[in-house]
Design brief:
Chain A is α+β, with helices and mostly antiparallel strands. Chain A has four helices and four strands; from the N terminus they run αβαββαβα. In chain A, a hairpin with a 4-residue loop joins β2 and β3. The chains are: A alpha+beta, B mainly beta.
Chain lengths: ~110, ~220
């Protein structure tokens, strides 16, 4: 009975985590110096149906994308999206950080 | 022309943003609308749509009022802008833009309209703390040839980020030849932008208003 309860709790937590944080893709991007010009990146990425949220940081040369639950965006697709926006992708990594954690980290770094 | 001035002043008052010399292409599938009031000598408005990040198409209206005599040009043009080269560096970006177009110009001293051509180029380099650009814009018809050269050097007191307000102090030098302006006109400008809205305003060395507004969407 206890085992069943634990299993239910694990499934609930996994489900909640999955909804809140389906997946994060972090990209290092060169040429990110102007927020006015970089807004095309956000606009392009948000058009992708797999995108749940986007964070852009000029300070960290970072573009982070949270994907929807069960969805993914291939590296080739991401590179094309950034290149078509006029920027150069220098690295792509899939991480465990949620965009909320990234936002909090960026806020912390500014202090 | 009065209607244009009223519309321009209205957009400024509405906070649509004042612009100076920005990039002629914002981003892929983006539309750029801009208006500039250049110390009573030069007034310009442009609308461009970019199907690609390196290409934009659109049109503009340019009025040149001579500070030397009573010459006036009213030029309406269609134009293609092309990003010839971009350097994306870790903490900087540099661009070379070129453009060409054609339209119709009203020549006040002849009281007639003429076919007019337009070619130009811009080089810019920016980090999050410094900005430099050099632009040359040539408008030509049978009755006139005017080259507008604009140099801008800017410094930011702090590094802005994607969602924060950017503040720049910009020194601008501008020369318009062909009997429109004598010598180089210098301006001190305050530039502010956040996301898609850009405002820029300042005064020339003769105390005249220099202002620009731009929105990207």
């Amino acid at each position: 009975m206890t085992r069943l309860k634990n299993w239910k709790m694990f499934c609930t937590l996994a489900l909640l985590t999955g909804v809140a944080h389906a997946g994060t893709i972090e990209m290092k991007v060169y040429g990110l110096v102007c927020g006015f010009c970089a807004q095309g990146i956000e606009k392009t990425l948000r058009k992708n149906p797999a995108t749940a949220d986007v964070v852009v940081s000029l300070e960290d040369k970072l573009v982070a994308v949270a994907t929807r639950d069960g969805a993914d965006i291939s590296d080739a697709e991401l590179t094309r999206a950034l290149t078509d926006s006029g920027y150069d992708v220098k690295g792509i990594s899939r991480t465990q950080r949620s965009l909320e954690q990234i936002r909090a980290q960026l806020k912390q770094d500014k202090k | 022309m009065n209607l244009f001035r009223i519309a321009f002043a209205g957009s400024v008052l509405a906070g649509a943003g004042m612009l100076a010399q920005a990039k002629p292409i914002a981003f892929s599938h983006g539309t750029t609308v801009m208006a500039e009031y250049g110390a009573g000598t030069m007034t310009e408005a442009q609308v461009f749509y970019a199907p690609k990040y390196f290409l934009s198409l659109g049109g503009g209206y340019l009025e040149l009022d001579s500070s030397i005599d009573h010459r006036r040009r009213e030029i309406a043009y269609a134009r293609v802008n092309y990003l010839a080269k971009r350097w994306n560096m870790e903490d900087a970006q540099a661009n070379v833009f070129v453009w060409g177009g054609a339209g119709q110009a009203y020549v006040s001293e002849l009281n007639e309209h003429q076919f007019a051509g337009n070619v130009g180029a811009q080089f810019d380099y920016e980090t999050r703390r410094i900005y430099a650009s050099l632009k040359t814009d040539l408008h030509r018809a049978d009755a006139f040839s005017h080259r507008i050269d604009t140099l801008q050097l800017g410094v930011a007191p702090y590094k802005h980020d994607f969602d924060s307000l950017a503040t720049w102090f910009v020194v601008q030098g501008r020369r318009i030849d062909g009997g429109i302006q004598e010598g180089t006109e210098w301006s001190l400008l305050l530039r502010l932008f956040k996301r898609g809205a850009w405002l820029e305003a300042g005064v020339t060395d003769e105390g005249k208003l220099q202002a620009m507004a731009m929105v990207n969407f």
